[in-house]
Amino acid sequence: VVTVEDLFYNVSTRKKALKSASEEYARILDVVGRYAVYKTGIAFSCKKHGDNRTELRTTAAASRVDNIRSVYGAQVAASLLPLDLAVGGAAPGHGDAPASEPPPEGGAEGAKFSLE
Questions:
Q1: How is residue 54 annotated by DSSP?
Q2: What are the phi and psi torsion angles at 100 (to 5°)?
Q3: Is the CB of residue 44 less than 8 Å from the CB of residue 36?
Q4: Torsion of CA 94, 96, 102, 106, to 10 degrees
Q5: Among the residues of the chain, which ranges form H helices?
Q6: Helix (H) and strand (E) counts for the chain?
Q7: Burial (CB count within 10 angstroms: exposed 0-12, middle 13-18, buried 19+), residue 57
Q8: What is the residue-wise DSSP string for 10-42?
Q9: pLDDT 10s per residue in the chain (116 long)?
């Protein structure tokens, strides 16, 4: 378990860049959510100090699509299109990646969503 509290609390650059606690928390949720989607096999959770409600939660057993569903919602997860990727420009399934390295994985979502 990693707990982060008062990180860069008194740094003037942070105070200038982030105008409110809610803006700072939204950016924290964005970063933690991106890590959660990228790194499967690790559980992530994020809640505001003093709040009982967890706003972001993934489990270590969750797949990448499960994590996308947890972070961005069921509608985004349902709209994902799988990408068959290859390493080194070889045909899918015939990449030149070492056998110990898992094949690349990816997905794309429809243009009707904006997560910015």
A1: -
A2: -80, -15
A3: yes
A4: -70
A5: 12-17, 21-38, 64-72, 74-78
A6: 4, 4
A7: middle
A8: T-HHHHHH--SHHHHHHHHHHHHHHHHHH-TTS
A9: 777 777 777 777 777 777 777 888 888 899 999 999 988 899 999 888 888 899 999 999 999 999 999 999 999 888 888 777 666 655 555 555 555 555 556 666 655 555 55
pTM assigned to the model: 0.68
Tell me how crowded residue 24 is: count the other CB atoms within 10 A of its CB: 15
- Structural contact between residues 63 and 77, judged by C-beta atoms closer than 8 angstroms: no
Which residue bears the tokens 């399934």? 93
* Token pair recorded at residue 108: 């794309």
